[in-house]
Amino acid sequence: MSGLQRWESEFYQRDTGFVADYGADVLSWLEPVAGERILDLGCGDGVLTQKIVAAGADVVGADSSPSFVQTARASGLDARVLDAQNLPFDREFDAVFSNAALHWMIQADDVISSVKRALKPNGRFVGEFGGFGNVAAIITAMRAVGEELGGDPDRIGPWFFPTVDHYSALLEQQGFKVDNIVTFYRQTPLPTGMRAWLKVMSGPFFDQFGDGSEAALDKVEAVLKDSLCDHNGKWFADYVRLRFLARVDD
Ligand code: BEZ
């Protein structure tokens, strides 16, 4: 698995459990209705998926990580290991929902067309993920430290953080009508600190330094301290979100 992002449910829940808390907000754009069939794309450990189930919808969770899917299933969800670019569904869902996952899916065109295939006529695609400029300070610090230590910058991400114009165009090209799309800055508290976030979200970048990975983490933290750590020692991530609601337009 070296070089690939690894998802381990236990660390994800401990260090980035806030992701689902913030995701509750975008659910107000989904407005799930009892009886609707909804696909939660990139469902992770299923914490947010449970909220859609609680609204009375018939929900399928999809994730590429077997560890996440196992955790989601253990909580009673219908969760499946699936490739977002090749979803095995044809006009089955009233809505596809996605929180904090689409930025990991860099073949955005393929994902959007796969989502469109999965939706019924007039079905909606609702999501939130990293927008243009997301974690810019964190990326810049990792690049600087990577360069200093002779690392490979391509092990950052890869992530997809589009502008509103770019993502709207991709949705429209694939046959969606965009009802609403916004971007906003959300400085996000990291309850277990920057180091834990870096390890969970960008493990492969630090793994490349072997025994020097802790030293690389020290350096990245030192670069970021002035901008993302407050006077009480509380860390934040410089998140930019892109939120959208689009409908199948044919
Ligand atoms: C995000 O949620 O914005 C994010 C998560 C992991 C890596 C980069 C960004």
Brief characterization of the structure:
The protein has 250 residues and is α/β, with parallel strands linked by helices. The chain has a domain at 9-132 and 159-190 and 239-248: Rossmann fold (3-Layer(aba) Sandwich), CATH 3.40.50. It has helices spanning 9-16, 18-30, 47-54, 66-74, 108-118, 136-148, 164-173, 193-201, 203-207, 213-228, and strands at residues 37-41, 58-63, 78-81, 93-99, 119-130, 176-189, 236-248.
N-C termini distance = 41 Å
Structural class by helix and strand composition: alpha/beta
Please compute the radius of gyration using only Cα atoms: 18 Å
Query: What is the CATH architecture term of the domain at 9-132 and 159-190 and 239-248?
Result: 3-Layer(aba) Sandwich
Report the bound ligands by name, code or SMILES: benzoic acid
Fill in the CATH topology of the domain at 9-132 and 159-190 and 239-248: Rossmann fold
Q: Give the CATH level 1 class of the domain at 9-132 and 159-190 and 239-248.
A: Alpha Beta
* CATH-defined superfamily of the domain at 9-132 and 159-190 and 239-248: Vaccinia Virus protein VP39
Outline the biggest β-sheet: 7 strands, mixed
Count helical runs: 10
Low-confidence stretches: none
- Choose one word for the global shape: globular
Average pLDDT taken over every residue: 93
